[in-house]
Structure formats: C-alpha cells, structure tokens
TrEMBL record:
UniProt keyword NADP present: yes
Family to which the UniProt record says this protein belongs: Belongs to the short-chain dehydrogenases/reductases (SDR) family.
Name recorded for this polypeptide: Short subunit dehydrogenase
Highest taxon of the lineage: Bacteria
Recorded GO MF terms: oxidoreductase activity, acting on the CH-OH group of donors, NAD or NADP as acceptor
UniProt xrefs under InterPro entries: CBR1-like, NAD(P)-bd_dom_sf, SDR_fam
Annotated keywords: NADP, Oxidoreductase
Gene source species: Nocardioides albertanoniae
Length: 242
C-alpha cells in the first residue's frame, strides 16, 4: 500500500461528491474522481488539480460490473485504496407517489443507490483490507429514516412522498448495517451519512445548504479515528434514528 492516503469518491464530477473530493484532497490525500461521463470526469479532475488536489479520474458507472472491476484495477495501479465514499445516487425522478409510481422508477433507484453501492464495496474490499485504517462512507439521506418518515411531527417527515428514492435509502441503511456486522472484527469502519437538504441537480437546486456544507458529514466519517463508530447513521447534528 502507498504511504499517502488514497480515497475514491463515486459520483464526484459534481454536487456533493465533487466537494467531498475537494475536501479530502485538501487534507493532502490522493483522490480518485469516480464518474461515468468522460468529459464531466476530466473537467472535475482538472478543476481539482487547479486547486492543488492530487486528483485522478476513475471511469465508473456503479451499475456496470465491468466498469466497477476496471475501477478496482485502476485503484490498485494507483497504489491501493484506504477510503471509499459511495456518494453516487439518483432519485429516479419525481413525483413518486406509491399509488402511481412506475415499477421501473423503483428499480432504477435501487440499482444505483443500493446495488451500485454493494457492487463497488465488494469490488474494492480486497484493496481496503490491505489498508491500515480503511473507511467506507455510504451517502444515505434522512428521508431513508423510517422513524422520521412515519413521524406525526411534520418537521421530521421531510421530502416529498417518494416510493422509490426514500425506500432505496432505507434499503441502503439496512444493507450497511449488515456490512458492519460482517466486518465487525476487522479494522474497516462503515457508516452512513446524510448531507442535509443541499442545492444540487438532484433536487433542481431547491436545497438550502451548499454542496460544501453537504460534504462535511462524509468528510468527517471518512476521517474517523480507529476507535470511531461503525454501522452508524449520522447527519452533522448527530445520529439519525433508523
Ligand atoms: N442534494 C441533497 O439534498 C441530498 C440529500 C440527501 C442525500 N443526498 C445524497 O447525496 C448524494 C449526492 O447527491 P447530489 O445531491 O450531489 O446529487 P447530484 O448533484 O445529482 O450528483 C449525483 C452524482 O451521482 C452520479 N451518478 C448517478 N448515477 C450514477 C451511476 N450509475 N454511476 C456513477 N455515478 C452516478 C452523477 O453522475 P452524472 O453527472 O453522470 O449524472 C453525479 O456525479 C446522493 O447519494 C444523494 O442521494 C443528497
């Protein structure tokens, strides 16, 4: 493994993922910019490098086995992997009332937000296992919290009624807990983060936080000390109820 900490951020060409890459790069880490579109990826890498980040492009479509396998190979050539941030995500498009949602919309959300994360983690695990302090951060959302979505307090039932996006994050939460259980006797810490309501393409820029603010929770979970938590679900203010 390399002396330098190496991170991979998926969906890092824009939005919160770009700012996570910038924030980790500002710590002197080498950062793989995972993105599926060549032009968008190269533009992001150039911008990060112009800001002094040791960035490199990683062609990556999280729904594609071959693409993910090639990304793992590229990381190995770059010196390995210490920190994986699974940030890539989609809503599937709104509206998504359960009485009218297209099954295909639900399938697409789960393909990217859940199966995509599993595919990337499992491909990267052999590299992460060689790291002294491996971390996995899965970008979830507080709309995946069943406790909040089923609350009678309107302040907690945030986001639109959404039968594809919100349950896909609940599913991601559940899978992450299972990873934490399986990996509990290793040095790998795996946690879920919610960035808050951030102005990005994902929500037509209606969010109230900046992508830089949204990136903070992922950066803090990516830089946890060795005795940090695992299997947790956090926003900046603290733990989120499941
Ligand atoms: N914005 C919010 O308020 C908010 C709130 C809670 C949670 N989140 C979560 O935060 C994460 C980042 O969201 P964001 O707001 O920054 O969204 P965004 O600006 O739409 O960025 C999403 C990123 O994911 C990438 N992506 C989508 N499908 C992909 C695939 N199949 N393979 C690889 N990359 C793919 C996109 O790439 P392209 O450019 O190629 O499409 C883009 O880089 C998501 O997981 C989201 O669910 C966001």
């Amino acid at each position: 493994m390399s002396e330098t900490t190496i991170a991979l951020v998926t969906g890092a060409n824009k939005g919160i993922g770009y700012e996570i890459a910038a924030g980790l790069g500002a710590r002197g880490w080498k950062v793989g910019v995972g993105a599926r579109d060549d032009a968008r990826r190269e533009a992001a890498v150039e911008k990060l490098r112009a800001d002094g980040v040791d960035a490199f492009g990683v062609p990556l479509d999280v729904t594609d086995d071959a693409s993910v396998a090639a990304a793992a190979q590229l990381l190995e050539e770059q010196g390995g992997l210490d920190v994986l941030v699974n940030n890539a995500g989609i809503t599937g498009g709104m509206p998504q009332e359960p009485t009218a949602v297209a099954i295909e919309t639900m399938r697409e959300a789960v393909e990217v937000n859940v199966f995509g994360v599993v595919r990337v983690i499992n491909a990267m695990l052999p590299l992460l296992r060689q790291s002294a302090s491996p971390r996995i951060v899965n970008m979830s959302s507080s709309v995946g919290s069943l406790a909040r979505q089923s609350s009678t307090d309107d302040a907690l039932t945030v986001g639109p009624v959404a039968a594809a996006y919100s349950p896909s994050k609940t599913y991601l939460n559940a899978v992450t807990v299972q990873y934490a259980r399986e990996l509990q006797d290793t040095n790998i810490l795996i946690n879920l983060g919610c960035p808050g309501f951030v102005a990005t393409d994902l929500n037509g820029f209606r969010g109230v936080r900046t992508p830089e603010e949204g990136a903070r929770i992922a950066i803090s979970l990516a830089t946890l000390p060795d005795d940090g938590p695992t299997g947790g679900y956090f926003e900046e203010a603290g733990a989120i109820p499941w």
